[in-house]
């Protein structure tokens, strides 16, 4: 840590009880730079395109310091909706260089977002996000990426198994492979089988997949519909034991794929998976809730009273959290709620179950929570 950074941290901690001066002056900085947030990357929305009634495609231009993503990784997208900052993870559905010709000076990414009619985040997105506005992004995350099998073990067959919007990371990977073939970066490539389940008429990027199958001669695409009689067992029957299998979709789908692969003795160590499913935490019903807290990589289990704010509750347990105003104005106490429901004491609203930014000083636990300080 250089001297200036250290000075910034010490001054902020001593004078303002915050991690950095940027955190304290965030509301002021936002007047000149909309959506600027300490410790987050800004991204400008270039386009918003509905792919279907329930699927939205965003093209985003992150600020220059945003780290390059690997194909298959995801980001946390933070958007201000109805005065609340909400965060959700989304896989990037474009390869790192896919938009380079069109936007040579930025690392433009594409997110493909399935609309959930009951979800406060996705249902509000199409009304609040327009081309030209700014959102916040995390650095790219996750290790659901093409590993050594592609470059170092070209004889290893690859099987991509997707359900619904689980196709998104595979779009990034396939575009990356197509580009590598075009540039002759890949000298040889193993066979790639894409198994893609969706409801009838709901497969995404059908035209793009058809074009990718022409650019990647080793790629074979099967678009399947369970209701039409297509079964997972039949689709996976030919999967060779030596193949590397990547699975993306709902948690139940991942379980079903694992069962089928176990049945044909495909080794679990040759599988990678990314799936969407909220973890289940234990419930208490005596005016207290279990909190799983992660602070600087260390996990702590706590039980906090549900009739007090999370900030007070943490302090009573000897946990130091950043704070400023303690009345929900300055955002200094903002932290990431990974799972669980909180009540916002200013509005009385309940949060969604998924990941989002919350303010500890005006939030009460309603269910067990996972928090990251
Ligand atoms: S301490 Fe200011 S918003 Fe929570």
Question: Can you tell me about this structure?
Answer:
The protein has 373 residues and is of the alpha/beta class. It folds into four domains: 32 residues, no CATH class; 105 residues, Elongation Factor Tu (Ef-tu), domain 3 (Beta Barrel), CATH 2.40.30; 129 residues, Rossmann fold (3-Layer(aba) Sandwich); 85 residues, Beta-grasp domain (Ubiquitin-like (UB roll), Roll), CATH 3.10.20. The chain contains ten helices and 18 strands. It has a six-stranded antiparallel β-sheet, covered by helices on one side. Strands 9-8-7-10-11 form a five-stranded parallel β-sheet. A five-stranded mixed β-sheet has the order 13-12-18-14-16, with helices on one face. A hairpin with a 2-residue loop joins strand 1 and strand 2. The site of FE2/S2 (inorganic) cluster (FES) has 12 residues, from loops.
Give a quick account of the main beta sheet: strands, pairing sense, barrel closure: 6 strands, antiparallel
The number of distinct helices, counting runs of at least 4 residues, comes to 10
* CATH architecture label of the largest domain: 3-Layer(aba) Sandwich
Structural class: alpha/beta
**Any idea how many domains?**
4
Notable traits:
373 residues, alpha/beta, Elongation Factor Tu (Ef-tu), domain 3, Rossmann fold, six-stranded antiparallel sheet, five-stranded parallel sheet, 10 helices, globular, binds FE2/S2 (inorganic) cluster
Q: What's the layout of helices and strands?
A:
Layout: H1 3-16, H2 21-24, H3 26-32, E1 41-52, E2 55-62, E3 74-81, E4 84-91, E5 109-114, H4 120-128, E6 134-137, H5 148-151, E7 158-163, H6 168-182, E8 192-197, H7 206-215, E9 219-224, H8 232-236, E10 244-250, H9 251-263, E11 271-276, E12 288-295, E13 298-305, H10 310-316, E14 334-339, E15 342-344, E16 356-359, E17 363-365, E18 369-372
Parallel strand pairs: 7-8, 7-10, 8-9, 10-11, 12-18
Antiparallel strand pairs: 1-2, 1-6, 2-5, 3-4, 3-6, 12-13, 14-16, 14-18, 15-17
Residues 323-326, 328-333, 359, 361 line the site of FE2/S2 (inorganic) cluster.
